[in-house]
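*** Protein under study ***
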Amino acid sequence: MGKDRKSIVVIGGGSGSSAALRGLKSHDLDLTAVVTMFDSGGSTGILREEFGYPPLGDLRQCLIALSPEGDEQIAALNSALDFRFDFGSSLQGHSVGNLVIAALTTAYNGVQGAIDELSRMMKLDGQVVPVTLDEAHLCARLINGQVIRTESAIDLRGKNGPGISEVFLDSEVKANPRALDAIKNADAILLGPGDLYTSVIPNLLVKDVSDAIRDTISPVIYACNLMTKLGETAGYGVSAFASEVVRYIGGRKLDYLLVNTAKFSDRVLSEYAAEDAAPVELDNGIVEQFAHEIVMGDFVFVDGLTLRHHSSRLADAVMTAIGQPKQPQPSPGLD
């Protein structure tokens, strides 16, 4: 990494990390996306179950998010990588990008080699790094002691059963050395945005990764969720999200906690209420226990009736936190 540029590590997976990366890549930074490797749903789950490939979907999203803007060839490649076959077809909803990474994983003797080759093809200025190269499944222990195994079962359980007491991996894994190097050399670490128990915290279950975050002298920033999620974070306020992140990084207090304060329309709220989801409320007086500084602002992009983190506003908040001036943003960017 270049010593003359600030280095930021974004830790998470999927659409949340993609939103952060899209905003941050317009700044002059060395960017690393450290990505969870415990997904088990959809196309990723089929490739994992049938062929033994590691989870590929979150890697694909982060690669596309980090790819350069304004290059017609890259734009065409991104469209192809993001194309998904119909779920009712013989290709069972597979993403072309997942299939390409799977093929490159075989050709280049492992998923990191596959990512490096695809990164070269996509002209990435930055790197995408699996949090581990080992195999494990995400599990959740509920308040009543019941254990749910696999990320997709946790993600899709809905109203089944009580809340989550803890999440854990079903086998011990080693951290990817490249992920550890990026964290140890980072000028700032951004956790999230993304689903708390299935995107952000799974990375922290890799012991050396959580230890490295706990011990860093660089600022640790957490972008809190916009909405709660049924079966995972129902009823959580900002302090509940922040306290769980702090718990899984060994009690280290967050340096900055990014909290959305924008209000949503009745139509949007009704849409989410149908899924028993509600805005994550800031509970002052409690949340200060978990963060040195709370950064409040409008971090929302409304895409139809869907709420996304606003890429450029999120990036501006991160840049301000690390003492870097804001830069003009040509477009909002979405997750």
